[in-house]
Amino acid sequence: MTTEVGSASEVKKDSSQLGTDATKEKPKEVAENQQNQSSDPEEEKGSQPPPAAESQSSLRRQKREKETSESRGISRFIPPWLKKQKSYTLVVAKDGGDKKEPTQAVVEEQVLDKEEPLPEEQRQAKGDAEEMAQKKQEIKVEVKEEKPSVSKEEKPSVSKVEMQPTELVSKEREEKVKETQEDKLEGGAAKRETKEVQTNELKAEKASQKVTKKTKTVQCKVTLLDGTEYSCDLEKHAKGQVLFDKVCEHLNLLEKDYFGLLFQESPEQKNWLDPAKEIKRQLRNLPWLFTFNVKFYPPDPSQLTEDITRYFLCLQLRQDIASGRLPCSFVTHALLGSYTLQAELGDYDPEEHGSIDLSEFQFAPTQTKELEEKVAELHKTHRGLSPAQADSQFLENAKRLSMYGVDLHHAKDSEGVDIKLGVCANGLLIYKDRLRINRFAWPKILKISYKRSNFYIKVRPAELEQFESTIGFKLPNHRAAKRLWKVCVEHHTFYRLVSPEQPPKAKFLTLGSKFRYSGRTQAQTRQASTLIDRPAPHFERTSSKRVSRSLDGAPIGVMDQSLMKDFPGAAGEISAYGPGLVSIAVVQDGDGRREVRSPTKAPHLQLIEGKELDKAQEDILKHQASISELKRNFMESTPEPRPNEWEKRRITPLSLQTQGRKGDHLFKDILSVKEKYLMPTTRTVEEKAQETDKSSHETLNIVEEKKRAEVGKDERVITEEMNGKEISPGSGPGEIRKVEPVTQKDSTSLSSESSSSSSESEEEDVGEYRPHHRVTEGTIREEQEYEEEVEEEPRPAAKVVEREEAVPEASPVTQAGASVITVETVIQENVGAQKIPGEKSVHEGALKQDMGEEAEEEPQKVNGEVSHVDIDVLPQIICCSEPPVVKTEMVTISDASQRTEISTKEVPIVQTETKTITYESPQIDGGAGGDSGTLLTAQTITSESVSTTTTTHITKTVKGGISETRIEKRIVITGDGDIDHDQALAQAIREAREQHPDMSVTRVVVHKETELAEEGED
Amino acid sequence: MGTPGEGLGRCSHALIRGVPESLASGEGAGAGLPALDLAKAQREHGVLGGKLRQRLGLQLLELPPEESLPLGPLLGDTAVIQGDTALITRPWSPARRPEVDGVRKALQDLGLRIVEIGDQNATLDGTDVLFTGREFFVGLSKWTNHRGAEIVADTFRDFAVSTVPVSGPSHLRGLCGMGGPRTVVAGRSDAAQKAVRAMAVLTDHPYASLTLPDDAAADCLFLRPGLPGVPPFLLHRGGGDLPNSQEALQKLSDVTLVPVSCSELEKAGAGLSSLCLVLSTRPHS
């Protein structure tokens, strides 16, 4: 799968490059195609593959033959110089230019060489671009279009027994074409044009070569929100997105990112269909039955662009209410019910409606006559509201319900007490019975993970605390844990981020990919909806009379033998795959599989699961608590029911900002209060944080340095740097802290990588997600507040202790061929000190807003087991990994003028080494030595992402009236690939500069450690 | 439901209950309450009623004192009212449970929907419940248990109901209150600050917070008897009772401060939130 996706996108990229050319060539193209097509049928007949039970090898042979013959047939269209190269096609290694072959050949090749389709295609495509004469454009286009779908279908079918009746094939083809189109919807206009042409070609072509593709179609049934059923035929290996797009198209829904498809995995479990994955793989042997549902409840439905979207949301909420998923008081049931009537029946009409039996409607899980009377009474008061207005009113009231948009998951806390975890736009809520007993806002959560049936969140330490804590919950089974984890990842991404987390850049990413939300975020979908430009679509509001009752409680997805019969595809699949695969799945479900997969994983898991760690941490926790007492007066809120004010500014289009919404004006108020009592500089900082956040999607997070940019900037540089310390273990607590997570990460990610090497992640039972690094604003805010209040920082002490405790775990995890790259950047900026002394007093006794989310120091670990960071921290590794044989090279670049261009080249890489490249800005002046100034504050923030750990160390000093802020950011990238230091360095500098344009980058160090012993394994 | 926050303090009626002589003797309570000056307590109570009626313009209903219920004046413990719904509580002290009867009757007569606690394991003192206009916090205190809190959640389903551990002998409302729709006021004691921090974690809504030198000063009532345009009132303990907190209270803008005194009644455990119940008979208008 992975490779296919990769190749698809590759191809896409190229196609957009070429798009312009292609369009230019269109006329010619078409002409050529006609020729091609006319020649095709004969070719086809000759090479028709044998029926059903053909062995794989013979099948391949067959195809090879066919390919040859085809290309021969087509060769008359191909200039001789191209023909010659053609013969390389069947060989794996190819040079550019192969693509002159017609589509078929390409397709086959795809099948045969599927081991490494990616590089090949790249090369091919590139070759095309560079070498091909214009005439060849047409073929290129075809390749582009054809490949993604073909590879998807063909690949599995090769290894399968083929027995699909031919009638299906043509249908299937059309599907494919559509899919291809849909897949590419993201693309630019030029590309789309290309596509148009292509589609026609493909269709014609397919009609002629029917038999080549033997993919099957499966009938899907989707229960829509109004209770009706939509069914369609899907190509068997279609991805979730295809079905979802079809459904949305059927519904005429454009703002579709809030929605999703659910399938019923078991009577009590429903899963979201992952659009990025094949449906079949997600369903396994379940029937292809889905329900269309709201996946992300818009916090403010009035910001939706279209009434039709709001209508579907209303339908969902009516279901939620009727099923009891969304609890309401009597009054609210009545009010919402009355808006439903207004929307569906219009103005109350005594003649017409007086006789209506309201018990046919379901306004509440249990409906009384009294409620119906109240509904009718309120209905009368809504006279004049249009259906759309009534829907809006409905939503305005529904959105305030406390359980609106909260996705509940049953779990147990560490003591085995039944609780529920609620995932919502703002974070994670913990309920016991109906009571909210804890809450973890997204900014507070550093990491979300699951292991087997346990679900963990690692929580940011409160401001004065030094320890992150990890809280574990027990889910009913591992799939439930995984589902919860996924939902969390998705919700976090959707609501908190500007754009989905990109997979880390290739050069840094060496570890297996994990699940990420790949759709649009709320910010993006809002942005996109502003572009919607169509007359409000007409749609029928269907009556919510009880027909739809079955929707909620026991959706149709329940396995029903009679339904199964409707799905030959699903049934046939079993036999097609044979018992072998099935049994694998079974094994994977079991607990034993971990051993099978990777030994590396074991030690880590034990760590995570061990409860005894909790106790060991208790003392520290107490210490933590006492420290936190000091802090309580300095609490400050980070409001977030929605993105807070400044974050919002970033996320929403300007036009929306002015719209006061439930939460929004709250924020404004709070902010205004804050403005009164905080120095204006504070906001400057926040705004910068905002910028930072924006760019922090990159894997490489460089230094943040926020400075009060008000006065003249006197830039100074501090030379003292942590460079070199990284190798020595004891250099400082701050260092150690940074290092810890890396090690830990290595072990997990490596292990899960190996466990999912099959690239089918459905079965993996370990997952991690670190929301933190992208939520930089929270970080900054915290430190910011902290700076204001605290004079001296007790930070270092306890960390060391912690590290020592964790030592025993270090050894098992030595990773094969892993290299750790550290990028450190220091940016700093000095500004006249004006803020400093005032703030505290301002705060005193003043209206302090401290009710926000980040406020408390007692993490209230009432529920869930509290354990400590070190569960998954193995600091020793890095610290001690001083390679036995070290060759160290230091390259120091001191060049102010051309910082971006680091030209130092390649130090010869001997076996294993530690390699460090340093960039230092020449601005370093004498200032550093003499007067070290008064340390105002210091703060270290660590954030982790899949393969990187970013540590930001911020110190603030005052020297002779000049306040200076230094941000040292250290990024540790772990992986087993080779990393180009120069690039890393250049990138680090570039990003640092982008993020902090008004600060100066004074030093960048790239340091690489490679373990000698593992060298061979690369 | 109304606009969130707007509902806070909306009221048309206030309910109080007279001070019986048994309160002064301490016999009825039997709880070792310190002797108090009955006349002074009654005078304070009378002044409170007067302010509610005249200064705030509320319809005042006064239940007659009952000698068998020395703590009857603390009727804030007997009911939790939001909108048109009144949850009749089950006070922790068995001796106080009969107090709910008179209150129930009065609230019923006012047209509220009455919800009872049937569960014999639940205890709930009304002054352990803080309604912020957007959500409920229920103090898990000496007086109120989890089950009691759960019933609050069951009763007021539109709202998030969060539990807040309360240490010491206080009720939640004895430590904090609402100074405005978006402002929590809290005492300076550890218990109060701890409660506020817990609330900060649990809430989806950011509130400003104002810390007052005295916990008792945080037991104030934000009341909006008039039309929306009229600035709301804050009924609070005056300078005679709590001189240290007056200055901080001035920081609350947009409210008209109405000081009252109840230092004598306080000896029996009373605070402003327990001495009166306010409600609106037209909660949705």
Automatic annotation (TrEMBL), chain B:
Keyword Glycosyltransferase on entry: no
This protein's record includes keyword Membrane: no
Active-site residues, record numbering mapped to chain: 171, 276
Organism superkingdom: Eukaryota
Family annotation (InterPro entries): DDAH-like (IPR033199)
GO molecular function: hydrolase activity
Keywords: Hydrolase
Similarity-based family: Belongs to the DDAH family.
PANTHER family reported in the protein's UniProt record: DIMETHYLARGININE DIMETHYLAMINOHYDROLASE, N(G),N(G)-DIMETHYLARGININE DIMETHYLAMINOHYDROLASE 2
The name this protein goes by in its record: Dimethylarginine dimethylaminohydrolase 2
Naturally occurring in which organism (per UniProt): Pan troglodytes (Chimpanzee)
